[in-house]
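Reviewer 2 asked us to include a model.

Predict the structure of this chain.
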Amino acid sequence: MLFGASYYWEYQPYDRLEEDIRLMREAGFSFVRMGDSIWSLCEPEEGRFEFGWLERVLDALHRAAIKAVLVTPTYAIPPWLARKHPEVMAIYARGERATFGGRQNVNIVHPAYRYYAERIIRQVASRFAPHPAVIGFQLDNETGTGLIYNPDVFQRFVEYLKKKFGSVERLNEIWGLTYWSHRLSDWADLWPPEPRVPHGPGASGNTNPGYDLEWRRFQSQLTTEFLAWQAAIVREYLRPGQFLTQDVVGGHGRPDADRYQIAQVVDILAENPYHPTQDGLLATAGEAGRRAGPEWMAESGPWSLFLKGDLGRSGRQANFLVTELNALSIGGAHSNFPAYDGQWRLAAYTYISRGANGLAYWHWHTLHYGWETYWGGILNHDLEPNRCYREISRIGHELQRYGDLLTDLRVEADVAFLYSQDSRYALEFQPCLTVPGRLEPDPRSYQRIFDTFYRAFFDARAQTAVVHPPQRFEDFRVLVAPALYIAEEALLERLVRYAENGGHLVLTFRCGYADEFARARWQRAPGPLRRAVGASYQEYSNLLQPLPLRAAAEGFVLSPAARAEAWADGLELEGATPLAYYDHPHFGRFPAAVSQPYGRGRVTYIGTLPNAAFGRALAAWVLAQAGLRPLIADLPEAVRVSTARTRDGQRLWFFTNWSWEPQALRELPVRGTELFSGAVVGPETTLTLGSWDVRIVVER
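Predicted model (structure tokens):
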């Protein structure tokens, strides 16, 4: 188990290398991540390289038995490169040109940028791959294109379209370019894919959803190709046993990067899954919890950490690294929410329980200058050990003792969630939902639907995983496909076969509505899924207010708090059994959710966005129908339990308490030993969890 932080010796206000290393050793660090922004320091002038300082740092780390993962320093270019080759700078929508002064502001396919980037990569890799402290390399950092519109990028896109579609006639057909007189007679007629200006008589920019979908796919492919290019260079210098990784933005990630694609070009995927803290980690986190983090963080509650862990594992269906984890605080000067006691440890073991093979905090010390002056590291500006350092040290010492047991865990899961990058892109371009409380499109519609259903099954105590369409999902007892809006016929047929062969398929509104080219299907919705669903619809409506519900099926229990939100399909029954109806003078004619046996399995369709109470009822019913029971019944709401297998097959039970209230768990259906205390655990004993606590039971 790797444990450490990103370390920036070069940012320290004075040389305290030996003191930093002493504190790291005392905290139980086994590695650091370093080098992501060192290009200008290592190549201060074109062609003049200075690596002595980096060698000194690596030598000191090696003497202390601390390993290093070096980052190829390509995501922040030196000033001389921008000055000598201004043509490498990115051009964004509507001709906005990036200026020097930030990072990730270049055209990553430009030949001049690639020339200098390759040179610095080779300098770093050839010199430091042989160093005994270096165990691997990270390619670039949180990589994406930035959605760039440089002329050479657009020409690459035209070549991409030629290869994929063959002719402008085919493109006219697929994209429906007769509409608004957009038919092409030559590839030169293709207009730049500028984002549309949506309002007014002068509305401009690209308005074609098929075009936008291909543009987004293309941008993600540029990101993947760039990382594959770097990987090929670095692999020329790797020693046996060294690895390559890339740190994707945690959760739903960047808008120009595909986690599944990136995972295929590295040895192990890494995640930067920042999370809310303080009341944002309460199991019952509400609006106050959602405010306990920076403005770009849209979620709160423990489910969000589990989801980010499942997404991390999803790229390769394998263990992953966490390369940037909350230290003191995250965000800007206005966002300061250091964790409560126990929350650092709780988050660490949550990610380990989802298959993390390494944890690194961002970062070792809080910077004294620059844009991220108030993004807190483990040490604050005073550079002295503090409450955060002490709790992280506790984790480090525990992992020194138990890390081997907790490495390479195989997470147990019965419910899989199908993640559709294409549907996310399409529902950003044409959102189906409005922003809560406002009549404007919500570009996070896909993320919002996905998160809602993930949380529903999390609250129903399911063990979960995330899969991507190219991956195998047939072995899971339940498969949930949230908002699978974009899907080719073959994928939909595969879903139907999954149910025919005994799986419980859960579909939501917008599933199967459009084909792989973002064209609305010309069959009655839900298109090829209609027979399996046992219901169809010809109309749908946004909901301005949540609607109450009434149960309609025996054994389906609804809380009085259950509500349908945001959307309603006008479902008409064609053999399926209604589970619940809207309680409304108009919408009451339509069921909100239906289900029917299909083949040896079952298909359940939910035509609305359930609130937490309705979602939990639906998930609990689905699990019962699939013969799945919670690992432990009637646990306190604040307690979550999950299981994983060690390399030698031992089963570990992770118990976590997401609240201030201590929890006493009795009559547990497991016998074993609590990892940290050595206490015997069994049905006749009591397992106690303190505030924000975690216990791990090794089953015997």
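The chain has a mean pLDDT of 96. Residues 209-235 form the longest helix (27 residues). We have added this to the supplementary material.
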